[in-house]
């Protein structure tokens, strides 16, 4: 199946390019933001020294101090002495930041401080967001067959009617996704992160995977986190795969709704953009068709069939 | 695709209409009606539906806002009291502070800020972060998936409610966005049509018109949804130009960091001066977000389309090459089958001639032969037809290949003389098909 091999190659090329794009963004952010952050850190130390030198504290200077502390804290710079949090803009953290930028999650626990950083974020996001969407949908295309079409076909062959089969499959998929991408990671997070409870973990997973990204919980920002770069990379991968599964769920639901006539009922614009060729398969009917076609067309490529027809008609 | 039909003699016999071409079912995986709808369907949500959904969304937001306020505000006020007490204690100390106490204070301050309370400034003129308009804004950021994060729920009940709220609200907002996008597209399409009518007079090519209209779309949209709001934000919020544009882009792509939020006392201005907001400022901002999101979704999908077109073009070229190769392969195999068929028919003819000569000789010699059923009239017609047709319609040669392919597979049956009635039925089918 030459065409399948070809499209796999294309997909891996895509993913590779996407990873390179993230790395590139991480490097640029790191080089732009790190000097500014260092300077801010030094300013905080100086401020603290000055405060400690005062013999007496009055309200005005306290307010001033607090304002400055808060402003620094908003950018993730802590003034506590024993905070051993490494820079917020080392490579792994910058990549994490780029990932949140490009998947539109946008936690906001670290934000670009310099003007150049902000301008770069704008351009980076404008290019990166559609690109990420493209990659995600391409991956979901590939996943549709083993995760949706094949099981639905299996269910149909075991005797269930088409429509209930899709519903059953959708419910099973939903349960599977909830278990693997919400419950299990929440358990992991609640053990790894010191101050998170299990509910906090589920809350974090949900807020991240819906790309809301409030930013009140961000993994890996606690001072004294062991293996921070590895942890952050793992969380990045989890975010990406989880996002893909959410898209898959959404697409399965959309096709199921098509089958049950919901989209016509709500008069929605039904056509998504066709990403790659195999986008518009209905998940049910195609099973029967494709099996017949596969049996009949063994030696010929599907794409060449029209030309074969022209040969026939002379 | 018709090969299965021909292989199965029953279905071939039942087919009354002559069918030379293969089944008309397209092999590409789109079903025909799906394809038609996607290409020709320009149905768009009616504006009544859109406004109904709009009101539903507003209602949903108001409900969410009241629930959030009920859940969060008590917690917030208790936090406020705690931090005030902390501050008073610190002031009462009054002497040199050592670093540990300082760190304690800072920790308290930081956790207070995380709870959304700003300890600096007087507590009297601070408005709650969870009053009705701010809660409305927060609910909006949740269901649009922007998620600024400058306000976030801190109670367990608030968080659980947030999850459920988002689960229902995000699809709802998705419908609304689709509807708004449709309306926007219609309005813009009409404007573009008018402009195109003017330009057509200048006899410019179609592609140039398309490119021009795309550029116009981008420019116009940027002006209305990006530049104008940026100027307004710069004026009202006191941000720099870059910061305003940054805020607009980060918001409209739903990234939503939260370092700059319109309508909240934030940004690099710090907490020192709080701009006075007019009453309708926040709802206008929310409305702008709604329409701007639709615009940005269109722009981003356009950029995605460009990516796709580029990848599709390469795929098309590859596909064309593959199609040519497959055509060549099909030709070659057809030729091969045709040769086989010819050979088998030749051999059969020679055999029949030999048999008839033998019969003649034997009849002349008076030997009784029982070989009278070897060649039924149908079979004779068949061989004759095939032979004639091949001469008369050379371009049908290739088309006969699947027929002859089937035949050659069963050719051995003829030569063996097995099951004449089966052969008869097949002949009728084949002769039918050859007409």
Could you characterize the architecture of this molecule?
The complex is a heterodimer of chains A (about 325) and B (about 425). Chain A is mostly helical and about 325 residues long. Chain A has ten helices and no strands. In chain A, α1 crosses α3 (about 90-100) and α4 crosses α5. Chain A starts with a helix and ends with a helix. In chain B, α7 (about 155-200) packs across α8 (about 205-235) and α10 packs across α12 (about 395-415). Residues about 1-45, about 265-275, about 370-375, about 385-425 and about 425-430 of chain B have low confidence and may be disordered. Chains A and B meet through α1, α2, α4, α6 and α9 of A and α3, α4, α5, α7 and α9 of B.
Concise overview:
Chain A: Belongs to the two pore domain potassium channel (TC 1.A.1.8) family. The complex is a heterodimer of chains A (314) and B (435). Chain A has 314 residues and is an all-alpha fold.
Helices and strands, with pairings:
The complex is a heterodimer of chains A (314) and B (435).
Chain A: H1 2-53, H2 59-74, H3 91-102, H4 115-157, H5 162-192, H6 198-209, H7 228-259, H8 262-266, H9 285-296, H10 305-313
Helix pairs in contact in A: 1-2, 1-3, 1-4, 3-7, 4-5, 4-7, 5-6, 5-7
Chain B: H1 3-7, H2 9-14, H3 32-40, H4 47-93, H5 99-114, H6 132-143, H7 156-200, H8 206-237, H9 241-252, H10 281-365, H11 377-392, H12 397-416, H13 420-434
Summarize the main sheet of chain A.
none
Uncertain runs of chain B: 1-45, 266-274, 371-375, 386-425, 427-432
Tell me the number of helical segments of chain B per DSSP (H or I, 4 or more residues long): 13
What string gives the helices and strands of chain B in order?
Answer: HHHHHHHHHHHHH
User: Terminal Cα separation of chain B, in Å?
Assistant: 19 Å
Radius of gyration of chain A: 26 Å
Query: How much of the residues of chain A is beta strand, in percent?
Result: under 5%
Give the termini distance of chain A in whole angstroms: 28 Å
The total beta strand count of chain A reads: 0
